[in-house]
């Protein structure tokens, strides 16, 4: 326990030296849209611990986290895991403390942040409660703000993602955004079209939209009573599908929009005349 406390104290000293300045040179290369989109899709895929998951999210946003580094080796702690094997977490990619140190040298860090200090795409570190240990730190990426409270994703264990708690309050937030890194509403889809697939069906397709995490599709006919969700579009992420049950001599209208955690784009409408 003494070793854990001494290490978090040493980390606090280093952070106090680097937190005073704003290192924004790397901020221009961070795409929060892409990082959050990756997190939204991968948080529950059953792979990786929290630091690995967040490192992969950052990589999706254009920030490569080193998997090996002798510079951070003095923050190593060896301990036995549940299987009795010794583990060494020595680098920013696999351990939250070196990851915090690595990011703090490149971005602004706020200690004990208020919720109002935290934005979508930021990286949050949690050290607190009864587990004030270096090795027990937790890290996540902020997915969205719900009723003023940040919601984060950490890794595939749902119990370790969501809203903050007294056991793991936000101890540090790394401000990743800046003007270029803020998550924005995606652009409207381009290349939307419908072409004949078979005698009673058509293929509806569009181009991939950068920063979109899903898509919405609706259709309308003269007798449909307005726009309806197309039941043939069963996935939220595909950029094409088969619209079935079409009737000869009907004009079908389709509209598509792109969606992410910030909001939705405008609709793009097309017509398909069923011969």
List the helices and strands and how they pair.
Blueprint: H1 2-18, H2 32-42, H3 50-60, E1 78-80, E2 86-88, H4 96-104, E3 108-111, E4 123-126, E5 138-146, E6 149-153, E7 172-175, E8 193-198, E9 201-205, E10 214-220, E11 228-229, E12 240-243, E13 251-259, E14 268-273
Antiparallel strand pairs: 1-2, 3-7, 4-5, 4-7, 5-6, 8-9, 9-12, 10-11, 10-13, 13-14
Helix pairs in contact: 2-3
List the keywords.
275 residues, alpha+beta, endopeptidase fold (from Nostoc punctiforme), Immunoglobulin-like, 2 domains, five-stranded antiparallel sheet, four-stranded antiparallel sheet, 4 helices, elongated, disordered N terminus
Describe the structure.
By secondary structure, this protein is α+β, with helices and mostly antiparallel strands. It has two domains: 2-181, Alpha-Beta Complex (endopeptidase fold (from Nostoc punctiforme)); 193-273, Immunoglobulins (Immunoglobulin-like, Sandwich), CATH 2.60.40. The protein has four helices and 14 strands. Strands 3-7-4-5-6 form a five-stranded antiparallel beta sheet, with helices on one face. A four-stranded antiparallel beta sheet has the order 11-10-13-14, with no helix packed on it. A hairpin with a 7-residue loop joins β10 and β11. α2 packs across α3.
């Amino acid at each position: 326990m003494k070793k854990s406390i001494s290490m978090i104290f040493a980390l606090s000293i280093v952070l106090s030296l680097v937190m005073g300045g704003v290192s924004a040179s790397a901020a221009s290369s961070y795409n929060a849209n892409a990082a959050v989109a990756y997190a939204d899709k991968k948080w529950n895929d059953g792979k990786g611990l929290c630091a690995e998951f967040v490192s992969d999210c950052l990589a999706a946003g254009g920030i490569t986290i080193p998997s090996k580094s002798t510079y951070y080796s003095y923050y190593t702690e060896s301990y036995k895991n549940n299987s009795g094997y010794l583990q060494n977490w020595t680098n920013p990619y696999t351990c939250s403390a070196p990851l915090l140190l690595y990011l703090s040298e490149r971005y602004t860090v706020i200690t004990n942040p208020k919720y109002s200090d935290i934005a979508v795409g930021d990286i949050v570190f949690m050290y607190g409660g009864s587990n004030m240990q270096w090795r027990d730190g937790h890290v996540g990426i902020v997915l969205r703000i719900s009723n003023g409270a940040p919601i984060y994703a950490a890794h595939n264990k749902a119990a370790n993602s969501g809203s903050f708690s007294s056991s793991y309050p936000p101890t540090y937030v790394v401000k990743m955004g800046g003007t270029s890194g803020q998550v924005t509403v995606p652009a409207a889809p381009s290349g939307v079209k419908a072409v004949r697939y078979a005698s009673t069906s058509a293929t509806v397709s569009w181009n991939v939209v950068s920063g979109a995490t899903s898509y919405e599709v609706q259709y309308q006919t003269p007798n449909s009573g307005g726009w309806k969700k197309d039941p043939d579009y069963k996935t939220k992420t595909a950029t094409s599908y088969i619209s079935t049950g079409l009737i000869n001599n009907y004009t079908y209208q389709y509209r598509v929009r792109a969606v992410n955690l910030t909001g939705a784009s405008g609709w793009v409408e097309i017509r398909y005349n069923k011969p």
